Amino acid sequence: xxxxxxxxxxxxxxxxxxxxxxxxxxxxxxxxxxxxxxxxxxxxxxxxxxxxxxxxxxxxxxxxxxxxxxxxxxxxxxxxxxxxxxxxxxxxxxxxxxxxxxxxxxxxxxxxxxxxxxxxxxxxxxxxxxxxxxxxxxxxxxxxxxxxxxxxxxxxxxxxxxxxxxxxxxxxxxxxxxxxxxxxxxxxxxxxxxxxxxxxxxxxxxxxxxxxxxxxxxxxxxxxxxxxxxxxxxxxxxxxxxxxxxxxxxxxxxxxxxxxxxxxxxxxxxxxxxxxxxxxxxxxxxxxxxxxxxxxxxxxxxxxxxxxxxxxxxxxxxxxxxxxxxxxxxxxxxxxxxxxxxxxxxxxxxxxxxxxxxxxxxxxxxxxxxxxxxxxxxxxxxxxxxxxxxxxxxxxxxxxxx
Amino acid sequence: xxxxxxxxxxxxxxxxxxxxxxxxxxxxxxxxxxxxxxxxxxxxxxxxxxxxxxxxxxxxxxxxxxxxxxxxxxxxxxxxxxxxxxxxxxxxxxxxxxxxxxxxxxxxxxxxxxxxxxxxxxxxxxxxxxxxxxxxxxxxxxxxxxxxxxxxxxxxxxxxxxxxxxxxxxxxxxxxxxxxxxxxxxxxxxxxxxxxxxxxxxxxxxxxxxxxxxxxxxxxxxxxxxxxxxxxxxxxxxxxxxxxxxxxxxxxxxxxxxxxxxxxxxxxxxxxxxxxxxxxxxxxxxxxxxxxxxxxxxxxxxxxxxxxxxxxxxxxxxxxxxxxxxxxxxxxxxxxxxxxxxxxxxxxxxxxxxxxxxxxxxxxxxxxxxxxxxxxxxxxxxxxxxxxxxxxxxxxxxxxxxxxxxxxxxxxxxxxxxxxxxxxxxxxxxxxxx
Lengths: 402, 434
Description:
CATH architecture of the largest domain in chain B: 3-Layer(aba) Sandwich
Number of strands of chain B: 14
Mean pLDDT of chain A: 91
Distance between the termini of chain B: 47 Å
Oligomer: heterodimer
Low-confidence stretches of chain B: 416-434
Mean pLDDT of chain B: 87
Strand order of the largest sheet of chain A: 11-10-9-12-13
Order of helices and strands of chain A: HEHEHHEHHEHEHHEHEHEHEHEEHEEHH
């Protein structure tokens, strides 16, 4: 799951790293996050991968480890510095996040975490990330760690309540997109108990077991959803309400899964009344797997696209085979993407603006921009786009027909 | 709780000779950086290849893209196993050859990361082998913040990467142009046209080579044949030392300054260095007049100065103190040797001035500490002083002498040019207006 694209990169950066994934998952939870690194890794997170840094700053620090610290293995300095800093803050937990330097010398964060936990009497989580893997495994690991530590099954269920799993700016984009999903759920008479992990507080996450259903909006949360299903008996879905008809079907699916009453408006299928693409149209979607399959449903059902191929820089094997198309693939190298786009005809391409560089300008293939922050960083974070619900339909309509 | 652990009075700093220690670091976009890759790609017609963990590749990718160098950068993410076992070397060699054949660059910078520093990977052998195959210089450089506490500084070492290449150019000709000057230490060429460059021209040095100004690789090679080096920022000192040692080019360290007296002293140093007399009096008088006309705008305003400026925050604080302005705070993480003279003066003239350790983890918890600050100069000062008007003096705007002082004052007034990050292309009209 955490493998990054191989080979020479020229047009695309590698996806955000595993330690970025940890930081992103924990960002809003009022913990003290300590990146054990010389400083550069932290700049990648704050300058490129964490758009929330501009609006609200988390307690997010670098250990500033130096070559001599590494050579002499003086973990005590690291330990003391964390103790000193933590004592001047009021944080709910400490997360120790490893990076390439401690990883390459085989430093184990668990030992320091245990000592810190004993000294400070606060939960301390150790993440032995390496910087060689991508953000997926970081987010997944952070979610599972939190779930194992904080969630218990002895909580009373709240009828018609759901959790949203897998929300981080890296996949979801800004909270504007998340709010579109929440608003759709609220209109359907559902309440959102906790969002893992954008906007919700740690206390909200702890109440997650009260929910009847988990809605997974990114592949990063599938391990968490599976864990919560097994340990807490909460079912999950990773069908997404992208566009008009898929949104109606999404609500119908939730109604079926929850056996509750959702708003009448959404019981009937909302029909897209806009233009459709000509028969035989082919589309390519390149992006995060769960969102990409949501968009696929929208293109097929709302716009009449005949054939949709999904390509991702991330593995697709967590998506059930029944949902996957026979041509869907994981992009292993930049060259593979170049070949895919260059040697095939597509009537529409949907993906991060960086993928535009692979399209032959002579072909003038319509391109729907859908920024993936884990790829292009905060550059397009605030750009005007949508994918959830009716706003998503309107955005696709506008991109295709105007 | 209080931010006391993160601050020190300037007179105490002068006595103790050290900033408050930062147990952990709060590092973010408020502390500007130029980056190793952008520094190396200042060599025209060169390309860069970064190698290392995927997580380390994003920073150079976005740095290069931001500066318009994206098309000249390649990345080769490595697997953990390959790095540990040393299996990555053949793929690096292959990538270098592929890039050289497809892009036909005049030079390739091979940039390794912290992990190779710790493993002691030797890239000199690879560069030698590849050079012999592709007949293009391959220069091994390092993006290794793990060594940032070492002396010389990371910034100086990055800048001195040019030395290896310039030495080979120098040995090709072994002739110095007796009337040409390199300006070292800047990331972009001087924006002004009338002051330092015209003084050098009148003194008989019409050819001035500046980093960031070259449009071709052959032009860049001229630096190796210069007769003099002027260092306007300490980051250029190591390169100047090496050029003096290996190529016999003398240098004068004359850092960017904002105090009328200090600027005058720097010009005097340059006069002695070039054995000449500049015609600078009229320019100084004009700057003095401009200052007198405008300084009242800032009377009663409380000022904070950060290290994220293209100059020394301590020198600027001293200059403003001399002009009678109310400088309340300086944000700083490192102190260069030459700055101690300014700290000494400040401890006498403005002893209550508070110096904050920019990256101290506790600073961000006290947003009201700087509520009274009216003007924050530099991105890091602006980051902390929430109610202040922010005046940036970024790396992209490189000035020198009296004109740079006037430029700063005009930025502080904000009515000549809106206070904002200024792209290099937009600078000329502002300079011309002053």
